[in-house]
Design goal:
alpha/beta, two-stranded antiparallel ribbon, 17 helices, 52% helix, elongated
Length: 390
């Protein structure tokens, strides 16, 4: 007996297996009918994403996506609608323990539902004592937030072999030689500027920080905002924060403020308002938002640094930052994060942070030398006029 496959536009792929009743044939009929529905579905214009961005939107690693497609015989399409379907399958499979076939069937029902429908019933038993319902509104909001994070904060595309050490050193020396004037400005800014003066230069971003402090939200300023407060000669385009996802009161404060600000996903404008709460803030690791026409990025983890608890040990505790009502990530942790995230994308910022770290290290060594001299009774050298140097 031979099995003949017919193109889905002419006839359903499940027809050749209608005479079989074994579990394997039943599973094959389900996958064949699902493939037919997928291929017969009209094409939609949706933004294409890279495999790395697709993994962020789905909320799974790339290996899980490859295995799920292979098991479900799913054609490869890296677009927004495919990411939403895979995200629902991953949520049902990993969180609720559904099989991939059952999760795929439920995801088909959810994706085919009207856009204005908030809640659907995907599965129910004969006696209706067991009902599987989906909150489509919450699923759409989570999908939009993850899509905004993938499009606005794309991961580094690591291709090819890394450059040799000597080539990296030569490029670094040439870059430093071309930026001698910037080095002098950075040293002067690090020695004379204060954190409060730099905070006033942030403008509207500083107002957002003030609102978060009043709401008693727990966060640490990171990214280019922290670099600007440390003294780097850059103008931050976004407010980057590392928040504490384990603190319920802090999550409630963030959710209430984001609702009051009318925050929305950055780069995606469809008019639907987001309903922020603690569950939504935990579900999306990185939030790329637009608040009062300003870009705000919330993270629950920093690469090469860790979670909020790990970052608390790397806070800059110098006296110049003690006057600020919030915490700032220290220079060594900032440099590690920028190197691990994408060294080429933040090369200028990392260069300035390394200069500021050198100035900070020199000042600490000088302060330690002076303190050890005073404790040991060492006299400072005298000037020609007979007075001691201060």
């Amino acid at each position: 007996m031979s099995l003949v496959f017919v193109h889905p536009t002419l006839r359903s792929l499940s027809a050749p297996f209608s005479s079989f009743s074994t579990p394997g044939a039943s599973r094959l009929r389900r996958r064949s009918s699902r493939l037919a529905r997928h291929l017969n579905r009209p094409l939609r214009h949706s933004p294409a994403v890279t495999p790395a961005q697709l993994a962020i939107v789905v909320g799974a690693d790339r290996k899980w996506i490859q295995n799920a497609r292979r098991i479900l015989d799913r054609p490869i399409r890296n677009d927004e609608h495919e990411a939403r379907w895979l995200g629902l399958v991953h949520e049902l499979h990993t969180t609720l323990g559904c099989s991939l076939d059952d999760a795929a069937d439920i995801a088909d029902v959810a994706c085919d539902a009207p856009a204005d429908q908030a809640i659907i019933t995907a599965r129910e038993s004969r006696s209706r004592c067991t009902v599987v319902t989906l909150d489509l509104k919450r699923a759409r909001q989570q999908h939009r937030l993850r899509l905004a994070s993938a499009l606005e904060l794309p991961p580094a595309d690591r291709r090819g072999r890394p450059p040799s050490r000597w080539r990296t050193i030569r490029a670094e020396l040439a870059h430093r030689a071309a930026r001698l004037d910037a080095v002098q400005q950075l040293k002067l800014r690090a020695m004379h500027g204060t954190a409060l003066e730099r905070l006033t230069e942030l403008g509207a971003l500083g107002d957002l920080l003030a609102d978060l402090v009043k709401a008693e939200a727990r966060f640490i300023v990171v990214g280019e905002t922290a670099a600007a407060l440390q003294g780097a000669l850059i103008v931050p385009t976004a407010l980057e924060l590392l928040h504490d996802v384990r603190n319920e009161s802090s999550l409630r404060a963030f959710a209430e403020l984001l609702d009051a600000w009318g925050a929305g996903p950055r780069g995606i404008e469809d008019g639907e308002r987001l309903d922020f709460d603690a569950h939504l803030l935990r579900a999306v690791p990185t939030l790329a938002l637009t608040v009062r026409n300003r870009a705000v990025t919330l993270r629950d983890r920093l690469e090469a640094v860790g979670t909020f608890t790990d970052a608390e040990a790397a806070i800059d505790d110098r006296p110049t930052f003690a006057t600020l009502p919030f915490a700032i990530l220290g220079l060594p942790a900032l440099i590690r994060h920028r190197k691990a995230a994408d060294g080429s994308r933040h090369a200028e910022e990392r260069f300035q942070l390394e200069i500021l770290e050198q100035v900070r290290t020199q000042r600490l060594r000088l302060a330690a030398f002076i303190a050890s001299g005073r404790q040991g009774g060492m006299r400072l050298p005298e000037t020609p006029s007979g007075r001691q140097n201060p």
